[in-house]
Amino acid sequence: MIKRGDGSKAVLTVLNMSLFVGIVGVLTLTASLTAVKYKAFHSSYDQRAIRFCEFWSSVGLCFWQISFACFAFKRSEAEIRCQFPRSFNFIRICVQVLFPFLLIGNLTISIAKVIFPTDARLVLTNRTLKLVCGGIGTVFDFLFAFCFSRALHRLNQEIGANPQLKTISVHGLYASGSLLLSYVFIIAPGRSIDGSDEATILVALSMFCLVNTFVALFALKVRLHFMREREGPRSSTERNSSQAGKVCEFTPSDAP
Fold first, then answer.
1. Are 149 and 173 in contact (CB under 8 A)?
2. 143-191: per-residue pLDDT in tens?
3. Are 138 and 90 in contact (CB under 8 A)?
4. What is the C-alpha separation between 119 and 8, in angstroms, rounded?
5. Among the listed residues 234, 193, 219, 230, the one whose alpha carbon sits nearest the alpha carbon of residue 34
6. What's the pTM value of the predicted model, to 2 decimals?
7. Pick the residue with more confidence: 109 or 4?
8. Most-buried pick from 20, 117, 155, 247 (CB within 10 A)?
9. What confidence tens digit (pLDDT) does each residue in 123-142 have?
10. Does residue 245 have a pLDDT over 70?
11. For the purposes of burial, counting CB atoms within 10 Å of the CB of 159, is it exposed (0-12), middle (13-18) or buried (19 or more)?
């Protein structure tokens, strides 16, 4: 475990690792889709290269979806527990177990499809799992957006509310909205790989929203770090203590 010299806060936290994996996923997805569009533009539509790029886009998509779900759930966990007390354990199992299992299963199918590209059953299974994972991811995104918006609404009505909590809610709501737009643009073309100008523009808009999502999450980490540096450990502890006991109140993570 890596620790800072001025405290015992660990660097290798769930939030930090989720953000890092998400950034790697975004870069992989962007590079693979760009390579496909470049080959289509230059009329060098080699099927083996396309399948290779599709595989790496599946890897990037898998990393991105798992990392965002883990990051957003960690940030909104207490709010989800408050809003959905009876369903909280089910939601947690879906986010932390079922969703990653389906995504990794779909990634495994994508690997098999590269090896056996003409197998109709693999193609159908891959498409079905993509639709299922996309649907579940969209539901989770709506859930996170709802929880962040509820928290922000409550904090705006409180006097002396923790500014760190407001920052988390604003950035979380912005990231969720940007990710929803990314889903809309990527679904709109009807096909993930298409050589038309319209599909290229829509995929580019989707990637812009996707990158914007993780820019918002990274900006959140930076803002929280500087806010905690300004407040100091005592001020931060006192502020969190003043929030204790309030109904439906989540607290900032123990790491910036």
1. yes
2. 998 988 888 888 888 767 778 888 888 888 888 888 888 877 766 544 4
3. no
4. 53
5. 193
6. 0.76
7. 109
8. 155
9. 888 888 888 888 888 888 89
10. no
11. exposed
Q: According to the 3-state scheme, what is the secondary structure of the chain?
A: CCECCCCCCECCCHHHHHHHHHHHHHHHHHHHHHHHHHHHHCCCCCHHHHHHHHHHHHHHHHHHHHHHHHHHHHHHHHHHHHHCCCCHHHHHHHHHHHHHHHHHHHHHHHHHHHHCCCCHHHHHHHHHHHHHHHHHHHHHHHHHHHHHHHHHHHHHHCCCCCHHHHHHHHHHHHHHHHHHHHHHHHHCCCCCCCCCHHHHHHHHHHHHHHHHHHHHHHHHHHHHHHHHHHHHHHHHHHHHHHHCCCCCCCCCCCCC
Count Cβ atoms within 10 A of the Cβ of residue 67 and give its class: 0-12 exposed, 13-18 middle, 19 or more buried. buried
**Residue 54 confidence (pLDDT) above 80:** no
CA neighbor of 183 nearest in space, from 216, 228, 144, 138: 138
Cα 136 from Cα 146, distance rounded (Å) = 15
- The lowest-confidence range among 37-41, 54-58, 102-106 is 37-41
* Partners of 10 in beta bridges: 3
In terms of Cβ atoms closer than 10 Å to its own Cβ (0-12, 13-18, 19+), residue 134 is: middle
Contact 79, 147 (CB under 8 A): yes
Q: What pLDDT is attached to residue 88?
A: 92
Instruction: Tell me how far apart the terminal alpha carbons of the chain are, to the nearest angstrom.
Output: 16
